[in-house]
Prior knowledge:
Elements: H1 6-18, H2 21-45, H3 48-64, H4 69-82, H5 85-98, H6 103-120, H7 123-139, H8 144-156, H9 160-173, H10 178-190, H11 194-204, H12 210-217, H13 225-233, H14 239-249, H15 260-276, E1 277-278, E2 283-284, H16 286-294, E3 299-302, E4 310-311, H17 313-316, E5 332-333, E6 335-341, E7 346-352, H18 375-379, E8 384-386, E9 393-395, E10 402-403, E11 407-414, E12 419-428, E13 435-442, E14 448-455, E15 457-458, E16 466-474, E17 478-488, E18 492-502, E19 510-511, E20 515-517, H19 524-528, E21 541-542, E22 546-554, E23 563-574, H20 582-587, E24 596-605, E25 609-616, E26 623-633, E27 639-648
Parallel strand pairs: 10-18, 21-27
Antiparallel strand pairs: 1-2, 3-6, 4-5, 6-7, 8-9, 11-12, 12-16, 13-14, 13-17, 15-16, 17-18, 19-22, 20-22, 22-25, 23-24, 23-26, 26-27
Amino acid sequence: MRSHPVWVVALGLVLVAGTPAHARAANAAARAETLYDHAEGLLKRNQIDTRRVALRELEQATLLQPDDALYQLELARAYFACGFLKSAKQRFERVTRLAPADAEGRYGLALVWRRDWLKYLDRSSLSRAIENLSLAARLRPDYCDAWLMLTPLLVERGDDKSAARAAARALEADSSRPEALLACAYTAFRLGDVGRADSGFAAAVPRLRRTVRERYEDIAPVASERDTATLRRLPEGQRPEFVRRFWKDNDPDPVTPENEAQLEYWSRVTQAYFLFYDPHRRDWDERGELYVRYGPPDVAIYNPIGAVVMNSQIALLTSRANVQQFTTGPEYPVNVLSWVYLGLGMNIILQDRLLSERYQLPIAEDFDPDPVPDPVLVAHLADLGATSSGRAVFHRLPPGVRAMPVEGTIARFEGDARPRLLAQIEAPADPADSVWAEWVVLDSTRQEVARGGRSLAPSACDPTERRVADFAADVPPGNYLVGISVRDAHGRRGVFRDDVVVTAPPPALTLSDVVLSCGTPDMSAVVSGSVVRPAPNPGARVDGDQLSAYFEIYRLSPGAGGASRFEYVYTVRSAQRDPRIWIQRVFAPRPSIPDVSASRAEENIGPLRRQFLSVPIQALPAGPYRLEVKVRDLLSRDEIVRSADFTKTSPAAPSN
Length: 656
């Protein structure tokens, strides 16, 4: 660098000193404005080199005009975009001091705390983000972005009512934003307003840009690989129908017009979109994938104690899920995130292998890292059910709805022209309770073929504690989904659903399903030849000395004069399983419960026989049993067997 003579430097100082203060201030302001305008243009190019230069120029502008909130704000935003969070935080805080009534400083500070919470999972950072967003929204009530960002954070804090209010304010601020509609829809679902959620999603999703809309239309995260492959092979015009049938198959309550599982999925997609979606990548990381499949984790830990956070081949030997293996090169640090779902038996390890706050599942060659819940645990969860793929779980009831335990059964009979389905439902209720049941039958395309509703009546088995109802419909052969929804006046709901296959009647001897009934049968229907509706006992509990059952025999071979002859044999066997290991069962066998069996030969006029059965079981101890009925046509020599399970709740009668 070339030096100047001393007299030149002195002359310059004299000239500067002689310049008026207001002129120097004007020059500084003009220079700062020039730097700011130029930096703005560089930032729009969105390149590494231009951002670096823009940062330097904005820093110079803030030095020239340290009290200008606009320059401080733009520098804070640039720091944040470049990932310099500490510097961004300091600048945003300066903005709030220089312009306390400006919402932008508070909004920017909230962005920093939100990102800090997403990375480190510190609840205090979440609280600070909510606090600053609330202040920004109060300073500018029409600030749609502030209300929108506030909504998912309030959801994460568990304050759904405040989240719904924030979503409503976002929609009020800008009704043209589909994201505001999404916020209203998913907070409505979380509050149990299923109808409003359904209409809200229907209005919002088609208005989203394509890359975001595809997240709502995509079933790949929750479907099986086979379903996903089938969907992709279909022509574009046939895909919506496939998706509709997929969600119908997984609808926890087919009776209602809304699909609660799909609405819960969309609600999770919305929360994941607000929290984890990267608009530059147009995607989210593995956190978003897990969230839409299983919802929020019960426990989330950043770099948990004991986790291996270095990539090394040696470390891989001790914890293969917590590290990334590189075959060559030095050890490389990674961040680890643990998401724990206690009820599902899953502790999912995610890795930030590029230290970019983008988490992925571990890379493995000897095991499948895709997290799937323990099906045994899921089967015992009263409030959750897995999809048919087993890769996702959804609640059986909408939020805020209290569960009512129900038991149901479906039996198949032959009608005059078509096969007939008989569905029975049972729920606990006092005699004074008002309980309503509605059923629906969907065919293999998941189109409705039957629907009906009625009040539950006192059960013949337990008139003071339980109520029952039954439904019947004639259907052609095919595969069906039957759903029954029960509601009471206290806001409780119970749901029973089952798949049933109805086959075409064979030309030979056949038997209906065996249906357990309550009490003494009404023989008038049998005599008159009308359709028999046994007193429902879908819970299959017997508290007494007699087991009652009903079945129908079809296509008995006629003999002389049109009379047919048949024999039926019933057998009651214990279904109690011995939980001990095999060697204990071999060397210390438990006393077996003797079977109860009897046979009876009958004559019948015509090929159809409607048969009630009473089985004495007073000698049997309490426990699970199976009733097996074998029918033999004495003329054609054909045989057929059906069975039904039940539980005896009363102890064995004392022997004399």
